[in-house]
Amino acid sequence: MERMQASTIREILKITQRPEIISFAGGLPAPELFPLQAFRKALNQTLVEDGVSALQYDITEGYPPLKDLLCGWLARRRIPATPDRMMLTNGSQQALDLIGKIFLDPGDRVLVENPTYLGALQAFNAYEAKYSTVPMDAQGLLIDQAEEKIRKDRPSLAYLVPTFQNPSGITMTRGRRMAFLKTARKHKLPIVEDDPYGYLRFSGETQPSLYSLAGGRGVIYLSTFSKILSPGIRLGFVLAEPRVIHALVLAKQAADLQPNSLIQRAVYHYGKSGHLERHIPVIIASYRQRVNTMLSAMKRYFPPSVRWVPPEGGMFVWCRLPEGMSASKLFPRAIQANVAYVTGDAFHANGGGDNTLRLNFTNSTPKQIEEGIKRLGKVFSEAL
Ligand SMILES: Cc1ncc(COP(=O)(O)O)c(C=O)c1O
Predict the structure, then answer these.
(1) What ligand 1 atom has the least distance to the C-alpha of 235?
(2) Strand 157-160 relative to strand 109-114: parallel, antiparallel, unpaired?
């Protein structure tokens, strides 16, 4: 319990619920893009066509027709998947918890990007993990430093978000991916590749997943329907070697028996009718407009000493204030100006990062984004 802290983000979200505040703090998808009609139809179809089996207990691994459909969908994205290498989860967050359960003993180390996804730290903290943090540049993880940490700290697991990372928005280049795989293989280090955002690319070239580059060996791939359909349905999936899937299945049985029978069938009907393929480009077009509005407003309103790497997809822009400036100290002033962000320190597993912050662009309209960035620019300029 000592290590299980309340998520700073969820605490900040409470303050930012006030209607006058333009909030770039959360990580929520745009609710107006949820495919309400299509999903209602899929749910109705489930109850009519599948009947009572949609309300019955089911197997732990996941609903087989949905697994088959997903394997085909992933193959079209050049991610090789077979049903025996797949398990469905209650969101990717559950997969992180189950991975902690089967891989980590107290005091074991996890190699993570610095900054990294806060929810992963929360999940691994429950298993008393320690962290070896590795910085990134615009091309992703710094491989020399990763290798040094692996040699020195002997981590049990590497956890990476290589595509449109949360929080930094950075995507690892193909070269860095290959180099990291080589290093990890040399040291027999299992890799968790968390990829909730990879299907939301606005610009640039698609990068191959670590999982496909490794031919599925030594990499556990996680993804989710949260950002491409709805986070409220809580459905994600894991790809891994069959022996890892077997261990995860046992851990999931102990945790909650199985994924939701009704939701899996509804997602199956939704996907089978072609809605996944049709809907993702709609999300991408809308997010592209929002991120472009944000980046162009940042150029106009932020002082030149504030730095960022424009993301090619995902949901976040990461900002670095000049050294010595503190995003946490500025936070009350931002709230006074009716604009909110998440301070970057929360994403640093071993401390630091006080001059960084994360901006989300998917849960505000372009008009709000323009106004919110203008307000934030004023707060930063006055603090310089
Ligand atoms: C990197 C990363 N992993 C996992 C998750 C959790 O996703 P899910 O809703 O599938 O549990 C998130 C959600 O924000 C995320 O950003």
Answers:
(1) 10
(2) parallel
Handedness of CA 163, 347, 29, 334 (dihedral sign): negative
143-192 tens-digit pLDDT: 999 999 999 999 999 999 999 999 999 999 999 999 999 999 999 999 99
What is the 51 CA–ligand 1 centroid distance (Å)? Answer: 31
DSSP line for 154-165: --SEEEE--SS-
- Ligand 1 center to residue 195 CA distance, Å? 8
Check whether 5 has a pLDDT greater than 80.
Answer: no
Ligand 1 interacting residues, C-beta cut-off 6 A: 27, 91-93, 117, 119, 161, 166, 194, 196, 224, 226, 231, 236
Q: Which of 166, 180, 250, 247 is nearest to 210 (CA)?
A: 180
CA-nearest of 294, 378, 293, 301 to 336 is: 378
What's the confidence (pLDDT) of residue 171? 97
Q: Residue 6: is its pLDDT beyond 80? A: no
Q: Is the peptide bond before 167 cis (omega within 30 degrees of 0)?
A: yes
pTM of the shown model: 0.96
- In the predicted structure, residue 12 carries a pLDDT above the cut 90: no
pLDDT of residue 16: 76
